Amino acid sequence: MTSTTTWRYRGDVAARAVAAIGGGYVLTSIVIALLALALPLPRADAVTIATLLSFVVYTCVILWVFATRSAARAWVGVAACSAVLGALLWAWQGGAGSVA
Amino acid sequence: MKDGLRQSMAWVHTWAGLLVCWLLLLVFMGGSAAYYKHEITFWMKPELHKAADAPSTVTPAAAATLAVRELQQLAPKANAWFLDLPHERNPLIYASWTNPPKKGMTREERRAAFRTQNVTLDPMTGEKTAAPRDTRGGEFLYRLHFDLYYMSAIWGRWIVGVAAMFMLVAIVSGVITHKRIFKDFFTFRPRKGQRSWLDAHNVTAVLALPFHLMITYTGLVTLMFMYMPSPTKALYGAEQNTMFAEVFPNAERVKPAKQFAPLADIAPMLLQAERAWGQAPTRIVLTHPNDASARIVLHRPAGQQLSNIEPTMTFDGASGALLSGPKPMSATLDARGAIYGLHVAHFADALLRALFFVCGLAGTAMVATGALLWGVKERQKYAKVVAKGGRVGFGVRLVDALNIGAIAGLPIAFAAYFWANRLLPVEMASRSNAEANCFFIAWGIAAVLAQIRPTRGMWRIQLTAGAVLFAGLPLLNALTTATHLGVTLFGGPGLRPVAAFDIVVLLLGALLGWAAWWLGKPKKAAAARQPARASTARDDAVIDPKPMEAA
Predict the structure, then answer these.
(1) d(Cα B85, Cα B121) in Å, to the nearest integer?
(2) pLDDT tens-digit map of B200-223
(3) Which listed residue, B195, B199, B224, B362, has the most CB atoms within 10 A of its CB?
(4) pTM
(5) Nearest CB to A32: which of B12, B230, B336?
(6) Stretch B12-28: mean pLDDT, rounded?
(7) How would you classify residue B99: left for phi > 0, otherwise alpha for psi between -120 and 50, otherwise beta?
(8) Where are the domains positioned within chain A?
(9) Beta pairing class for B93-98 and B80-84
């Protein structure tokens, strides 16, 4: 509409929005699942605390994605964190599966 | 993106807020009304007013005894009975029951059957009151604020959840971007166009900021296990029901013994609970009445704790003996109950409840002023274009129209719902649905008219319509019932909710009327002060109604 809204700018916004909403949701889900597993509490308490904190984690991820220098950085950050923590979660649950 | 943390947060604040603001207005208005859902329901069932007018002198134990006697007549073979005894917000006994499900009954049919299986009882006699009209009352507004309507509840909850998450992000980014949050709280510069809208937005947002943050977060928490299922998956796998059973401790489920046993007298149980709690229970659930394994669960009334999960006492229905209740909750589960409890505010007494309601309205005002501010700011970019006889962009026009349809149109919808309650024929088939349809028809008309002509005149027309409809409600009530303000103000405490409803809608009508009048005032003051700026808030609500192409 105005001169500042170039296609480049729009692409940047779209990339960040997807990283924040979709990537942020995935990363949040992984972080709180790990937290639930790690908390040394009865599982009803652990699941409650982890789920209660989910919205705080999600909010922080979303704000970071929009605050960081570039959309590429945002994507790399969200994807790298998700990959590392997701692998950890997968390993942890694989271990838990063999016990159960 | 923009440079600097504050700039990028301002960007996030603007867009996260703008994208969902019209839905948030519905959620905030519906949620604010839901704090008074019992009172609204009572106002919408004028058939009950007469029974409530008689001062109730019976004790809770006597009322429960009468109610049980009546339910023995109405539904002796039910699965469960539910009783709500009179308390300060509810002058009558509400009784309902569930029957054993018949084979092949769909969930919808069971729900429809359950809707017919409830009665209102006169606490003095235990007998049924006059049958109230078919209306969902305040329950409709309460459900609307998180289930929406015309769609499955699950879809509604996800949509509202996404909007709430946007809101949470908008609030936090709004705080970060706001470097003078304390100073701005005391700043209001009226009649200065954009500055005034910004100040109004800041005042309504900052004044009730703890409330906005709390209500948004706790709202997400009410449905958190649905929105964020990954911890449940990690710890419980596919056994979600096991998690619910552990996190939400219910009274244990008992199977019926299929052996007749008369119910023990309920009055001593209530007295025992009253001695233990210092307050008589107001909610009673009886499962398998007249069976050897009958259970009677008494709930402590709200008001002594934040958590919405109140302690209970369970009695053996046949012997009348006190059984051990559910084991006490852990601190974590209690904390979750308190966070949930903060949202629904069952604990709030009259004054605190009024404060929650006012804060909810402040939230509505925050969202509304924020939405208006976007339009005002955005239009400044077109100041030169407009000065040369050009037109503002498509986005500005769309936001203007949506603002009118939501900010001025929604009050019309709420008022239309209450008007429909009094004007639709009492015997009409599926009347409660028709009332809800009236809400959306009125809103739809307002929204469409706003899209056709998003002008300052349209603002005034719709605000005036909302004002007349709201302020006219006490008059409508007087014309269609015997419990008008002249009666309810001087009647017994049972009619106070009716009087309060009439007074509050009158005030809301006055507020809308003031807004309409303010918009219509001659605008010379603002124009004189800022001659250079073509687009201040008040001058510029008028834009070309003709469609314009996006530049």
Answers:
(1) 9
(2) 787 778 778 889 999 999 999 999
(3) B224
(4) 0.88
(5) B230
(6) 95
(7) beta
(8) 7-99
(9) antiparallel
